[in-house]
Amino acid sequence: MSAGFPGVTLWAEIIFVISALTMLAGALVAVMAHRIIRSVCGLALCCIGLAGLYAFLRSPFLALMQILIYVGAVCITIVFAVMLAEPDEPAEPTSGHGEGVWLACALLVAAVVGWGLATLVVKGPWATPVERVAEGSVKAIGIALLTTHSLAFEVVSVVLLVAIVGALAIAHGGRGAAR
Amino acid sequence: MNTPLYERPAVYLVLAVVLLVIGLFGFLRRRTLIGMLISGEILFMAASLNVMALNRFFSPQPASGQIFVLLIMGLAAGEVAIGLSIIIAVYRNFRSIRTQDLSEMKG
After folding, report:
1. Which of chain A's residues have a Cβ under 8 Å away from the Cβ of B2?
2. pLDDT single digits (tens) A60-81
């Protein structure tokens, strides 16, 4: 994104901020919503914002894959599970006191972890960005997948196969025990 | 002229931290299994964003990080498939997927 045109940098910054805010808002909706279906929609929104950030990180292939896999596969699968089970959070506060304590504990843990990591990020001695020796195009990714990283590629395909067969076996095993 | 926002590594790293914190908070707060699964996905995405930012700014080999994130996506998809099948099996047996109700074990 070289600024050949005077306003290009500003517009790119605006789009960057929009995608970052989309990601954070989607994540907050996914975490805070009471209905699980809204939470799934928040997850999809978060994935779209993250895809925008991937595009800014100069990997448009990953942006496409993010939308394809997360929005297209993961969210739809979760929607199917929501239709099969009834996973809404209980509306009535069953035990108001313990609920508040639990919420405070979750907030505390998240705040401590976030503060520590953010301090590390901001104050850490990061090296100066290096020059890249290769390009990160789709062609380079494909060549690297089939040469350098071919073992990891094959192992992940085996993992996915086992996941498919295991999901079928587990979901089939509970059938008939219900009634 | 200062560097624009999208060319600074710290911005991406802080965004990844915020995403991680949101996912952690949701993982602790949710009381249903699907909610915890969604929060786990947010944690995976925070890790992916972190890896991609470090790959973009601090690595001379840009293809490696993208392949790493692709593998993370594959593992996350497998995790969702297994997790949802377990959730559905649990729902068949318990008629509920609230974590408070799942308090008995067998075996």
Report:
1. none
2. 899 999 999 999 999 999 998 8
CB atoms within 10 A of CB A155: 13
Place of tokens 């929609």: A41
User: pLDDT tens across B57-81, in order?
Assistant: 888 888 888 999 999 999 999 999 9
Which one, of A105, A98, A82, lies nearest residue A33 by Cα? A82
Compute the radius of gyration of chain B from its Cα atoms.
18
Residue A139 has pLDDT above 50, yes or no: yes
Q: Which of B7, B15, B25, B44 best tests the A interface by mutation, with the highest count of A CBs <10 A?
A: B25
Q: What is the pLDDT of residue A179?
A: 46
Q: Does domain A9-90 have CATH number 1.20.120.1200?
A: yes
A93 pLDDT higher than 60: no
Burial of A37 (0-12, 13-18, 19+ CB in 10 A): middle
- How many Cβ pairs within 8 Å bridge chains A and B? 246
* Statement: residue A111 has pLDDT above 70: yes
Burial class, A64, CB count within 10 angstroms (exposed 0-12 / middle 13-18 / buried 19+): middle
Tokens of A152: 């990891």
Question: Under a CB-based contact definition with an 8 Å cutoff, are residues A24 and A49 in contact?
Answer: yes
Q: Give B-chain residues touching A74 at CB under 8 angstroms.
A: 41, 76-77, 80
AA identity, residue A108: L
Q: What one-letter code names the amino acid at A12?
A: A
Cα–Cα distance between A65 and A44 in angstroms, integer?
A: 13
Both tokens assigned to A25: 């808002």
